[in-house]
Amino acid sequence: MTYVVTDACIRCKYMDCVEVCPVDCFYEGENMLVINPNECIDCGVCEPECPAEAILPDTESGLEQWMELNSKFSAEWPNITTKGDAPDDADDHKGEEGKYEKYFSAEPGAGD
Ligand code: SF4
Ligand code: SF4
User: Fold this and answer.
1) Pocket lining for ligand 1, CB < 6 angstroms
2) What is the mean pLDDT of each run of 10 residues along the chain (112 residues)?
């Protein structure tokens, strides 16, 4: 079992999650983060920290697309362990529908 970042994270990137993860298993893309499912110890502490409610346990249904995305891109993107500055327009995109189709980028973020 693992926790999964969904498209609710796209263009939010508040990064409150990375500070609390005891095993540093978040990875940074250009405009969202993902969790490495092989490294996540399923502690659940990141879930309530995410203001966008983007983090869910994989026991919830309908997460297959995001499971695949987290698995694929956590192997390609750099590790991120320190909270950075959220984009200026992060709040404008909170709760927006269809963010994957509109904004997803496969490009890596800067990491740390
Ligand atoms: S706190 Fe939530 S929205 Fe922000 S980077 Fe982490 S998973 Fe994404
Ligand atoms: S559930 Fe725990 S180990 Fe997994 S990503 Fe969240 S904080 Fe890290």
Assistant:
1) 5, 9, 12-17, 33, 50, 52, 54-55
2) 95 89 97 97 97 95 96 98 84 88 96 94
Domain boundaries, the chain: 3-83
* Closest listed ligand to the CA of 50: 1
CA dihedral for 67, 69, 70, 74, sign (positive or negative): positive
Specify whether domain 3-83 bears CATH 3.40.710.10: no
What spacing in Å lies between the alpha carbon of 62 and ligand 1's midpoint?
A: 19
Sign (positive or negative) of CA dihedral 8, 20, 111, 91: positive
Q: Which of 7, 10, 14 to mutate to test the pocket of ligand 1 (most atoms within 8 A of CB)?
A: 14
